[in-house]
Amino acid sequence: MSVKSIRGAIDISENTSKAILEATKKLLLEIKEKTI
């Protein structure tokens, strides 16, 4: 693997974890709103 492809894989994994965090936050907010 070249350095560029490794960096690209790291960027993708970081973006994926950020997307998962955002989705989790939205889900938690929706659950809170429904329970109130």
From TrEMBL:
Organism: Desulfonispora thiosulfatigenes DSM 11270
Protein name, per record: Chorismate mutase
